[in-house]
Amino acid sequence: DIQMTQSPSLLSASVGDRVTLSCKASQNIYKYLNWYQQKLGEAPKLLIYYTNSLQTGIPSRFSGSGSGTDYTLTISSLQPEDVATYFCQQYNSWYTFGAGTKLELK
Amino acid sequence: EVQLVESGGGLVQPGRSLKLSCAASGFTFSNYYMAWVRQAPKKGLEWVATISTSGSRTYYPDSVKGRFTISRDNAKSSLYLQMNSLKSEDTATYYCARSLTTVVTRDPFAYWGQGTLVTVSS
Questions:
Q1: Nearest C-alpha of chain A: how many angstroms from B64?
Q2: Which of A33, A43, A98, B11 is the most buried (most CB within 10 A)?
Q3: Which residues of chain B have pLDDT under 50?
Q4: Would the CB atoms of B100 and A89 count as touching at under 8 Å?
Q5: For residue B2, is it left (φ>0), alpha (ψ between -120 and 50) or beta?
């Protein structure tokens, strides 16, 4: 099974900051990597698919990059509504999620 | 607007069974692979099952294989999850999810329901 490791587990940042979240796979997942945002009490929402494709309706301040085993979600200018937990998910070999990065405002 | 509404959750004793349902609307249900994903309280996400458009192919992780059965009724735009031999570790919110596109077996989960809570406890 492919394991997904996210870092950090908790991230504090200020409004307007550029924020970077990391996700590492236990083997090459060939860019089959998605990012989801989950706000408190809500279902997850797809933000980015296939490493860097922005889902419809998602603000352009969100972007993704990476290859092989290492992937990144970047928020170019943090907004208050971005407070949430972010999960990465590989779908090269069925599906595995990371444990999440909780993003809070400093 | 795509809508997915789960139902059927509740408190169940270990070893018993429970069937979840998901009512879909706002899209042509029969064109999309569908899945169930669960989230234990204050934990991460775990894929539970996927079903093909016709229902002829189903896929499960080892953690639920042989105990859970995913099915669908395209005429009713409904998805189901039959859960047997439930264990305490099956306690979670269960989400119904729709694939992003109509063309591939493994696809991102583009739309999610609000979830239904299953608690397995004596």
A1: 14
A2: A33
A3: none
A4: no
A5: beta
Q: Identify any residues that bridge with A71 across adjacent strands, giving them in sequence order.
A: A23, A66
* Per-residue model confidence (pLDDT) at position B43: 87
Strands (E), A9-97: 10-13, 19-25, 33-38, 45-49, 53-54, 62-67, 70-75, 84-90, 96-97
Digit-by-digit pLDDT tens for chain A (106 residues) are 999 999 999 999 999 999 999 999 999 999 999 999 999 999 999 999 999 999 999 999 999 999 999 999 999 999 999 999 999 999 999 999 999 999 999 9
Token duo for residue A32: 């089959």
Residues B55-89 have pLDDT tens digits of: 999 999 999 999 999 999 999 999 999 999 999 99
Residue B30 backbone dihedrals phi, psi, to 5 degrees: -70, -10
- Measure in Å the smallest separation between the Cα of B106 and chain A Cα atoms: 6
Region of residue A38 (left: phi > 0; alpha: psi -120 to 50; beta: else): beta
Distance CA A89, CA B99 (A): 14
For B65-77, the DSSP string reads: TTTEEEEEEGGGT
Tell me if the bond preceding A8 is cis, omega within 30° of 0.
yes
Task: Provide, as residue numbers in chain B, all residues whose Cβ is less than 8 Å from the Cβ of A43.
Answer: 95, 112-115
Interface test with B, best of A95, A96, A97, A101 (most B CBs within 10 A): A95
Q: Do B100 and A46 make contact, defined as CB atoms within 8 angstroms? A: yes
In this structure, what token pair is assigned to residue B113?
Answer: 């329901």
